[in-house]
Amino acid sequence: MRPMIRVLVVDDHPVLRAGLEAVLRAEPGFVCVGVAADGHELLRALRRTRPDVVVLDRRLGHEDGLELCAQLRAEPAAPDVVIYTADPDASLRQQATAAGACAIVVKDADIDQLFDTLRLAVRPQRTAAV
Q1: What 3-state DSSP class applies to 89?
Q2: pLDDT for residue 125 is more than 90
Q3: 6: helix, coil or strand?
Q4: 77-97 pLDDT, tens per residue?
């Protein structure tokens, strides 16, 4: 049996957080171990839940998801990070790579694209999907 992929969802919009949590719980092979609305909640949830991968919103109100990604990746035994964004710009791929993200998914992408990206993110020998 394949191990479950443990996902932490970080987004400042409550409906989006709840929606992602629901679809992750319904998809075989995934378990949503927690949700967070900001950087403070992210770090607290990270230590409590030990996810394999974090789905991290690019813009969390007044916080920059890329800065949080860099902080997160500096943690011991840091999980992989997938940046989730509504507004990709031309420089986002380079910035996300510099921050330590393994991939970017646009919020209007099909949910299967997110699932596939999360599966690839936790592969031991993955090539960068950013």
Answers
A1: coil
A2: no
A3: strand
A4: 899 999 999 988 888 999 999
Between the CA of residue 60 and those of 4, 30, 52, 68, what are the distances in Å?
27, 24, 21, 10
Asked, for residue 73, whether it belongs to a domain, the answer is yes
Q: What is the mean pLDDT of the chain?
A: 91
Residue ranges making up the domain that contains 19: 5-121
- Identify whether 34 is part of a domain: yes
Structural domain contains residue 71: yes
Q: Where are the beta strands (DSSP E) in the chain?
A: 5-10, 30-36, 53-57, 59-60, 63-64, 80-85, 103-106
Q: What angle do CA 6, 95, 85 make, to 5 degrees?
A: 55
CATH label of the domain that carries residue 103: 3.40.50.2300
Q: What is the mean pLDDT of residues 111-127?
A: 83
